[in-house]
Amino acid sequence: MARAREWHSRGRGFNSHHLHNKLKMSDSKNSSQELDPEIADLIGLDDKNASDNPDFFDLFTEEVPELEEDVQGDGIEIKAKFADITKYEEDPKPYFNDKDYYKVVISGEGDISQKVHSLLSSFLKAEDPKDKLTYRERLTLAYWELGASISGKISKTLPVPKKLLLRFGVLLQTLINKDQRLLLSKVIENNNTGEPIFYVDEWLSKISTGEINPSVVDETKKGKGKQSRKVNTALERERGHKDSIFALMKNKATAITDIEMLIMEKAAALKKHELIAKYGNIIAPYSPEQRTLINEIQELAKKLLQYDKDFSFAIENIENSLVKIKELEDKSKEDGEESGVDSKVLVEEFMTLKQMAKMSVGRKGNHFPILMQQYMKTNMNDIATRENVIKIMSEIEKVDPGLFKRTFKRQTNRIVPYTILLPSYGELGVCWEPYEKFNRATGRGRIGIPIFPKDLKIAIIYAMGDLRWQVAKETASYYWMEEGLTGRYYQWFTEQKMRGDVKESFINNYFLWITKEADGMQKLEKEVRGIFWRNIPFPTELKERLRNRGFVYNELYKKDTNIAMSDGY
Question: What Rg, from alpha-carbon coordinates, does the chain have?
């Protein structure tokens, strides 16, 4: 897919195998449960440093809750827009009131537990910058191993600290300050929005139950999980088919209602007769205009019958589809009970998320995966919580109303991609895949948004630009350099003899389109503005406002009017 072809990892990690014997536990089971007193003192887990921890015991009296999975409806629910978000945080939860938080995170993961503990201790103690950098790089590699180990067990009931490691990257709670801990404890825990936006622990849970297919599926692998994935793929395809039929039904129902109203209007005009006075005010025959109305009503009646036939056929099809979905759901449930998703699949998915995080950070960004005080902001609005992401995506969609719309076999559906909230310091959001391989009609794509970016709105706009480009490119297929949005942009790019990545150039210009041009500030090249005006159009009301903001927009608006009077673009 485009996601893999357009990204190349140039980094090379440090080889930590030579440390294995040095750091290996004499008794991994027992040692992973016990901390060296000196290190415990260093990281603030002993009694005398307890006052440095957040005073949650004074603030809360309830027990620490388990993170619950959100409940999603079956299939793809096609919505007209995002629901309005009215609640952005909830009462603080005692996430970090347990002084054993760190111990719980690293316990029970075998040798990697001791490795992470040793490297973290050395990293925190190091004073020489070179030593600190070395330990930082080794700790980064060990952290991902620890996360992969925990991810493989996501189908079981994980302790809250392990889930919080996956969700926010909190390895050691005292690495962030009291205000930051309190802020994270206010993040709304469960998905009450109905939108396909997930934290990493939630995403892996969906993968583990087979509700969502893994991001990378190796069809050559054999095993019990392969049949389960085939069933899930067929189920997802059938759900997409059902949703496509339902969208067709809604279109036909609307068309039928419109034609009925039109026939009634024309019939009302037929009932208006002139009177012939000399014949006792008897009604006059139909006028030539009324005879024309009769012919028009006959044509409309033919259309009405055809639409009704299509509507009835769609209802029959959707009933059959619902039966197939029920059969596949039962089969999927049986397969899940028998085998479930292999832990290796979950580990592979976690490493895919690691790649997404790397892409969002970029080569020169901060790749350190552990949440630390100096890298985290203390304002809830600056963090990519589920609710904040929905709010900003909704704002972008108002400027770019076609952002999530996809046309397949003459049916247009609004499909919001799966959005994974990555616990990273990434600068930009990324599109991993524009839509699912086996379901182009309603299959969701996959995008990643860093939870702790420099600027949240910028990160999300860039992800939307990446999505725009990849959907257009995949739709045009082999002709992406010649046709559609990507074709027009690529031709301009080459004509200008520009250097660099054409997709990166497009995304940068998409950012200007959403943030500047939508406000009437002319920041784009004339040709690019024309391409975007026609292929990523603003809503009509915004176009009408912009036409009064300057000659450039007025000319584009006039061209729109002239083209609309012909056959369209």
Answer: 29
